[in-house]
Amino acid sequence: MPYSLLRRLSEAQLPVAVTAEEDLERLQFLRDAGYIRVSFPAEAGSNQPPAATVTKVTALGRMALRHPR
C-alpha cells in the first residue's frame, strides 16, 4: 500500500534510494498525489536497474499521514 511506504519514508533520513520494483510504482502514485519529491534518473531502455531517489516528504504528504483515508 502506498501509505505504508509514505510512512516509512517520513521516518527515514532523506534522501533515500529505492530499487524494489513494487515500491517504484508506489512512488509514482505518491509523487502524482503531491506527497513526495522523487527523481527517476534511469531512462526506459537503459541497462541500469530501475531506481529512484526520494528527496522530500511534502507538507501534503505529512498531512495525509495524520489523516489516513
- Would you tell me the structural class of the helices and strands? alpha+beta
Low-confidence stretches: none
Span between termini: 12 Å
Strand content: 15-25%
Mean pLDDT: 89
Would you give an account of this structure?
The chain is of the alpha+beta class and 69 residues long. The chain has one domain (2-66). It contains 3 helices and 3 strands. A 3-stranded antiparallel β-sheet has the order 1-3-2.
Short description:
The chain has one domain.
SSE topology sketch:
Layout: H1 2-11, E1 16-18, H2 21-32, E2 36-39, E3 52-57, H3 59-66
Keywords:
69 residues; 3 helices; elongated
